[in-house]
């Protein structure tokens, strides 16, 4: 089967079942893309880091880059993967928004959303655990200290996350 078709099928699945946004879909992306052998686990980790630093949703940014790499540095691969990940959710939102607006006070609609919220939190937690690997934590002592430190600074202070990212980059340059 053609690499473009495989890429489109993989990203349509990701777009269709990737509830909760980019971080919630990371484990799904990793399973589909790294599992297919298009990129390595190390490359996936780097893509996640780059996608977090660039403007736009992480799922779309990663699709654009992985589409480019998986098809031998083809812009057409980037376009195909990006459209494939966006189109299913766009169509679902377009269709569902009319239904949800008409029935937003419905017990059924409220029940569905109440059930989806904890699942999204679980998927984001799964993504966090997925990223706790030797590529992101080469020296567990320093890596865990940086991770916990960054969490505490962002969670307990009013310091902007951009400053934490810059400081972490400098710390990584010094430590590693």
Q: Main attributes?
A:
mainly alpha, 8 helices
Tally the beta strands: 0
Calculate the mean pLDDT score and round it: 86
What gyration radius follows from the Cα positions, in whole Å? Answer: 18 Å
* Span between termini: 42 Å
| Number of helical segments with 4 or more residues | 8
Helices and strands, in order, run as HHHHHHHH
Largest sheet, if any?
A: none
Q: What class would the helix/strand composition place it in?
A: mainly alpha
Point out poorly predicted stretches.
none
Helix content: over 70%
Shape: globular
Q: What percent of residues are in strands?
A: under 5%
Structural write-up:
The structure is a single chain. The protein is an all-alpha fold. 76% of the residues lie in helices and 0% in strands. Helix 3 packs across helix 4. The model has no long low-confidence stretch (mean pLDDT 86).
Question: Brief overview, please?
Answer:
By secondary structure, the protein is mainly alpha-helical. It is built from 8 helices and no strands.
SSE blueprint:
Blueprint: H1 3-17, H2 26-33, H3 41-53, H4 58-70, H5 75-102, H6 107-130, H7 140-156, H8 161-175
């Amino acid at each position: 089967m053609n690499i473009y078709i495989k890429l489109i099928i993989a990203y349509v699945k990701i777009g269709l079942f990737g509830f909760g946004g980019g971080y919630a879909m990371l484990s799904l992306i990793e399973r589909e893309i790294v599992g297919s052998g298009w990129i390595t686990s190390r490359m996936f980790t780097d893509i996640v880091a780059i996608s977090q630093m660039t403007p736009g949703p992480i799922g779309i940014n990663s699709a654009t880059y992985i589409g480019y790499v998986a098809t031998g540095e083809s812009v057409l691969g980037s376009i195909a993967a990006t459209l494939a990940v966006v189109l299913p959710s766009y169509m679902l939102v377009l269709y569902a928004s009319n239904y949800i607006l008409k029935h937003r006070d419905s017990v059924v609609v409220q029940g569905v959303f109440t059930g989806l919220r904890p699942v999204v939190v679980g998927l984001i937690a799964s993504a966090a655990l997925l990223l706790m690997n030797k590529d992101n934590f080469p020296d567990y002592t320093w890596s865990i200290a940086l991770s916990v430190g960054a969490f505490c600074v962002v969670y307990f202070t009013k310091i902007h996350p951009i400053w934490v990212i810059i400081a972490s980059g400098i710390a990584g340059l010094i430590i590693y």
